[in-house]
Amino acid sequence: MVNELISEINFRGANFVKTVDISRLPEKENMGYDTAILIGILLSPEFILGLSKETIAVPSEFWEKEHRAQELAEWVADFIVGKGYKAFAQSDGNLINGYFEEATKTSVLPHKKIAILSGLGWIGKNNLLIAEEYGCAFCMCTVLTNASLSIENKKVIMPKCGGCTVCKDICPVNVIHGTTWEPNMNRDLIVDVYHCKCCLKCLVHCPWTQNYMKSNITL
Ligand code: SF4
Ligand code: SF4
């Protein structure tokens, strides 16, 4: 089933798929599931360039790919359930009562936590997951399951922001505090999510995202 599932996820538009052991997390976080599947879809270098130069005013590609990643997660959960296992897609439509707290804007098991366990990257001062290869230029969604899949947990990567403050300096509403992430750190020490305008400037202008864009763009 694993090979069939992974090749179908890739065929349906994912750029990366990771399977993560979450069995050692507290049950209130893993909700009784032992494996998480992380699905990622890259933002195009052209889109990053357009936002950088402000030739793109509306970041519709970002929202389309967010939506696509969630649709894909829901398809994966249905596929796994069809094979006789339990699975739960952590799409926005499913992350309601008991899975997401609106008041604090936190989910029980965030995609970013799963991404950290997978070794994909680290949490930057912009509170986004940064992958060395892609910067923050991707959308993610996750599926929790009890299907037996081979897993690829890696060592937690500590932030590689160093002395950079680009995201803090560029945020138009000053909600990034410039704090370096540490495991189990309260997110509110890094960013005030309640006043974030979702403008994506901190995503686009992060040097890691710019490196991804410059390495992959065809001009
Ligand atoms: S998305 Fe925009 S408003 Fe939100 S933290 Fe990033 S730069 Fe600031
Ligand atoms: S812009 Fe700089 S400080 Fe902000 S997340 Fe990227 S590397 Fe870290």
From TrEMBL:
Spans traversing the lipid bilayer: none
Protein name, UniProt field: Iron-sulfur-binding protein
Source superkingdom: Bacteria
Positions of the 4Fe-4S ferredoxin-type domain: 153-182
Keywords carried by this UniProt record: Iron, Iron-sulfur, Metal-binding
